[in-house]
Amino acid sequence: MKDKTKDQATHERLAQSNAGTSSDEQTRRKLQTEDALKQAHDNLERLVEERTSELSAKNRQLLEEIEERKRVEGQLRRSEEKYRHIYENIQDIYYEIGIDGIIQELSSSVERITKYTRDELIGTSVYEIYVSPEERDEFLRIIKTKGVATDHEVVMKDKDGRLVTASLYSRLVFDENGVPIKILGSIRDITKRKLAEEALRESEIKYRSIFETTAAATIIIEEDTTISLVNNAFERLSGLSKNEMEGKRSWTEFIAQDDLPKMLEYHRLRRIDQDAAPRNYEFQFVDKDGHIKDAFMTIAIIPETKKSVASISDITERKRSERALKKREKELEVKSRNLEELNTALKVLLKQREADKEELAERTLSNVKHLVLPYIEKLKKGSLESKDEAYIAIVESNLKEIVSPFSQRLSSKFMTLTPKELQVAHLIKEGRTTKEIAELLNASPGTIDFHRNNIRNKLNMKNKRANLRSYLLTLT
Q: Measured between alpha carbons, how far is 258 from 238 in angstroms, rounded to an integer?
């Protein structure tokens, strides 16, 4: 606004000058000079304002850059602290090695794995801790040709001489001209892992041997029903080779159609809950030629997998024997019923026989008592010679013996005695001497002694001092 007022005053003076009198050249120039000075002044003020504005903007930018640098430096410091903490506490060994093999840098974790401190190893040759020069040369060949080595296994020795199996992750570092200057990377102690792998390998060999040599046909089944592994016994059972089955066939191909739906459901349930399906059951197995065999299966899920291991036994002969046994049992049951009926009839007959026997005994006893003994008594009252009396006494005694338990026990217990020996035994029991027995039986005393010896032998009394008559009396 101020500049505008000045311009108006100038023009008014010029107008007055032109109106009143004609101005001279000097006045005109003066006015031009004033205008030029004014314009220069205005330009200078504008430039000052612009420069001031630029400086203010640069100052603000500089302040922002300073703040950003402080922020970045803070982040960098925190990052350095973070990675320094990681570096110092890393489980693996971080390393930097010169192309000449001299160790340039190591993380503190080197002491935990090798028992060496950082200071003991930095500046020494890494090749000294290799156990095998061949492994060292192989690592160098890989790193030189590929520029990187991933999970490369080597064996090193620690400060105490203990062998350490390590896995190397390494790469070459190049300068700006592409020349290798060092190798950096990490070393991981995998000794425990290798020992575990070796133990697992030995375990696999052991169980593979058991798997192959077990008498039962055994297979490993995948979740999709594919047979992934079979043993020799399953080859024999199915009639197919391992190459024809492993990874190529489903176990469902060996199941009779009547059993398949049930077993497929077991297969599904077992992978949801292994207790939801039976672990042991019978089914019918079909071999490559279509022959059906009775089989018994024991199956279970392999822990932490969806695979199952199945052991199959051929029980065809056993089932055939069971069927034959059942048939035989039914036949025997029929025969048993027949025998029971026959036994009942025999019991009736035996009972009747015993009754008849008792009746006969009673009748015989009655006849002897009433029809024989009375006449003997009459004979005894008559006039008889002594010899006749003896005979009558013998007859009477024998009749009584017939109806006494002695005869029955003697004849049943000593069936081996001859009739003559039985006569001698009866007379001995009555107390007769050898001479008396000889006279009564019209035999010589030697013959009677011979019979006495035979009786003792047959009664197991040989070489015993027991009295023969006393023993015979125990049988009454």
A: 19
